[in-house]
Specification:
Length: 225
């Protein structure tokens, strides 16, 4: 609970607990109550909230309850942007909840930013209009709409671009790459030309998550010997 409030306080988050959830084998803990969902929607509407994170117990085993809540809220709030935890994180309720929360916060900004990019591209008058892609944390690409829905997947894409660029320029598929910046050095192992997936917990701004991300270690204001 302390982790949840550590995120919640800076973003002035509202937290709602609905009866729901599954056991690890898919057996339901409790059925959802439509009245509870409608009450939450009414409060969100009155508060002017446009983005929410939805996280259920063992949602990776059965995502139906997260999806039901999202559909119930969207039916009453068509402009709402819900982030479902099972679409981002792995096993581990708190870390997965953190990942969904960190994604939900910048969604409105991500949509405005990507719309601005699209407008700038359209203003060039190119035919056909080029598609917009963004790089994500694991070194692959995603289209603009996907990036607007999951901005957390771009948080570490800057260093990843360096890693993929190094693989392309060196023509090496197995290597260690150092990305040296002004205050940090990122070290990543390339496997088959892509950054190796992290086997450890990923911390973003001091918040634990279990996002799929490259295995990177950072050194701030330090020297390597």
């Amino acid at each position: 609970m302390s982790r949840r409030w550590r995120i919640g306080a800076p973003i002035a988050a509202r937290t709602y607990l609905l009866r729901s959830g599954f056991e690890f084998d898919g057996r339901p803990i409790s059925a959802l109550d439509a009245g509870e969902g409608d009450a939450v929607a009414a409060e969100l509407d009155a508060s002017g909230i446009t983005a929410v994170a939805i996280s259920g117990v063992f949602a990776l085993t059965d995502a139906s309850q997260e999806e039901w809540v999202a559909e119930r809220l969207r039916a009453q709030l068509p402009d709402l942007d819900p982030t479902l935890s099972h679409e981002l994180g792995r096993l581990g309720l708190i870390e997965r909840e953190n990942a969904a929360t960190l994604n939900a916060c910048p969604v409105p900004l991500a949509r405005r930013t990507i719309d601005a990019f699209r407008a700038a591209i359209a203003a060039l008058g190119l035919e056909p209009v080029p598609r917009l892609f963004l790089s994500q944390n694991d070194g692959t690409l995603m289209d603009a709409e996907y990036a607007a829905r999951y901005p957390v997947l771009t948080f570490a894409s800057g260093p990843t671009n360096s890693m993929r660029g190094a693989a392309f320029l060196s023509r090496l598929t197995e290597a260690m790459v150092l990305d040296v910046g002004g205050t940090t050095t990122d070290a990543v192992v390339l496997v088959a030309g892509f950054p190796r997936e992290a086997s450890f917990e990923i911390s973003i701004g001091g918040v634990r998550t279990n996002l799929l991300q490259k295995g990177m270690r950072c050194s701030k204001d330090s020297s390597w010997r």
